[in-house]
Amino acid sequence: MSTTVNPGNRPTGYLPEGADINRNIAARRLRGKVWQAFFLSSLIIGLLALATLLYTIVDDSFGYIVVQTKIDPEELSDRPLEELSKEELIEILRANISPGLFRRFDRDEPFSERSKESVLQLIEERVIGREVVAAYKLTESLLERDRIEATVRERFPRAELEFHSWINREFLTRPMNSSPILAGVGNAILGSLWVIAITMLLAIPIGILGGVYLEEYASDTWYYRLIETNINNLAGVPSIIYGILGLAVFVRALESLTSGAAFGVTDSNGRTLLSAGLTMALLVLPLMIINAREAIRAVPQSIRQASYGLGATKWQTVWHHVLPNALPGILTGTILSMSRAMGETAPLIVVGASTFVVFFPDSVFDKFTVIPIQIYNWTQQPGAQFRSIAAAAIIVLLVTLLLLNATAILLRNRFKRSY
């Protein structure tokens, strides 16, 4: 009977001894160190890429700006404009713009109903005309201040050089404006929150109920396998396809519903917050169902068997035992879905998100814009000041997303402790 040998001319089943075992251990340790170095380098590269991204965004969000005005504010009043009453500001506005333009402003929104801040903003935009003619990054502003001051004195003798934070209270509360220094993301923040609220209100209950049915009630039949396959495929469909679907179904086919015409709204069309929320709900629904199924599947069978042993029905077992224990995992899926919906742009462009909206939405039947759309719009504009407000909007988007995710994580941890 012959003995089978391996490539090392040792019999099959050979166990290393002596020097062989030391070489074997050294080789295994070397492979372990190589893989450890590979994983560590991957982590370092990822952290460097993230640090570079954050540095670039912060570097563009702060720095010196060169501001030039058509009229010096001191020529309008011997007191600071912020200290004047609304009536005094209205008279200044009336005296420095054409009567036709003044009547148009009054017709669009009567001055008796406007706030003092609104009138002051009109004066800044139409009378003072503050314009940013140059903007510098934070690194330049800190390291090359003398050069910047000399350049400003030479090129813009009438302008003022000031250190400016593009992220401020006005930027967070003002709507979109054609002038970068007067532009804000207030309406975009509100639009994003509206869209996320509509999306989650629809996707969370439908996703959980779909996951419960497929995992607890559906039998292994051909149509069950067909549904499961389609859900897995839909989770990987490009988001632009959902935008086209939303345009065809919600914007056009169901326009009477999404525009509010069925409820008496007459000044709108199907390109509304409701259409956007419905489209984004379709986008995240497959992901919600898959995560709900995985979370329900992770609940131990012993919990179900104990419930049945005490005489509980199928629904009582699911409602009182399975879902509470699966809720932390379901919330994890909700966090991932919410993050994806918050940053999507392509579907919203297709269903009609506007790039220039100057009002705040107050119902689901209003036109809308969202933070990613504003960022996309500003990055397409020429000039360093538009890159600066785009970077500031990116920080706002990141902070908003982190706050929403932190809230969901706190809820998840609370349910983990409870169950």
What does this structure look like?
Mean pLDDT is 85; it is low at 1-5. The protein is flat. The protein has a 3-stranded antiparallel β-sheet. Helix 17 packs antiparallel against helix 18. The protein is mainly α and 419 residues long. The chain is built from 18 helices and 3 strands. The chain has helices at 19-61, 73-76, 86-96, 99-108, 116-128, 138-143, 145-155, 169-173, 186-217, 222-234, 239-253, 255-258, 273-297, 301-309, 314-343, 346-351, 371-379, 384-418, and strands at 62-68, 131-135, 160-165.
Radius of gyration: 30 Å
- Percent of residues in helices comes to 55-70%
Ends distance = 63 Å
Oligomeric composition of the shown chains: single chain
Order of helices and strands: HEHHHHEHHEHHHHHHHHHHH
User: Which segments are poorly predicted (pLDDT under 50) over 5 or more consecutive residues?
Assistant: 1-5
Strand order of the largest sheet: 2-1-3
Strand content: under 5%
Main pleated sheet = 3 strands, antiparallel
| Tally of helical segments | 18
